[in-house]
Amino acid sequence: MTILSTHLENQNTDPSLTALIQSITVCCADIADLLKHGPMNDILGMAGAENVQGEDQKKLDVISNDMLKEALANTGLVKAIASEEEEHCVPSDPDGKFLVLFDPLDGSSNIDINSLVGTIFSIYAAPEKETIEDTDFLIAGRKQLAAGYVLYGPSVILTLTTGHGTHMYMLDQNSNAFLLFVDGVQIPRETKEFAINAANQRHWAEPMQLYISDLLKGETGPRQKNFNMRWVAAMVGDVHRILCRGGLFTYPWDKKDPDKAGKLRLMYEANPMALLTEQAGGAAFTDELPILDIDPEHIHQRVPVILGSSEEVNICVNYHR
Ligand code: AHG
Ligand code: MN
Ligand code: MN
Question: What pTM was computed for the model?
Fold first, then answer.
């Protein structure tokens, strides 16, 4: 069995990047341990505060954010971090080589029902300057040095890319190490499965209404095949399913809140998932361009997301042209 660090060495990964990834995964193994003891640790329920985006924070959002912040600060490799749960970036080590962005706990609404949640992260090279500001994080997703997520499910799984394919590792309970089990994920090009929160249908733009209604028509409709639908309500779970067996995941633009271009955040949700998807042979778009080509404007910016099996993503995006 190949352990994570050996696999990264084999890909000639910069040793300090390997060390950084390693410390993120050690912290995620600790988060997994905490989740396992859920109700017994008094870690469920609300934290009683809102994050910068006006969303109610759960206790676990706050705890996992603090754990990751501390773990990253201890590496001495990170110049600054940005997180879903922090209004502004947080400076760390002035000599650090990297910037790290993360969604400490994705799928918060699943915590209290013992369902899938995960941690999503994105790593960039830090600019050569002393004081880091929010604007220093506004780098296109294409420039990520590494991206990944840890899924806290029946197994704890790390899915990672450093730009040399997308790979999956499983946390081994005995050794506490992540072991490689899929060397080079390949997303099937075609699919009959899609994921969307259909309760928002009336708020979607016209092209998305049309695309989904054509899928629902099944065999007798223009697509001439029957589709199935799945919705985990945690992007990390939906994307994991798509990396395993294909599919299309979308959280589209909707007119519920005109100030928000979608629900998902570019810098610590869409970008890392887009890199993992592209590196696995899939596609990841907004309703017009590849997510990785977006010029970011804000660390908490929201974008429409359409990702997964490349042919299906193309069909969906074409409805918008
Ligand atoms: P977070 O828990 O980090 O705020 O993210 C939740 C996101 C995403 O993971 C998921 O796909 C989506 O919200 C679920 O949205 P609905 O509540 O509309 O199902
Ligand atoms: Mn999230
Ligand atoms: Mn979150």
Answer: 0.96
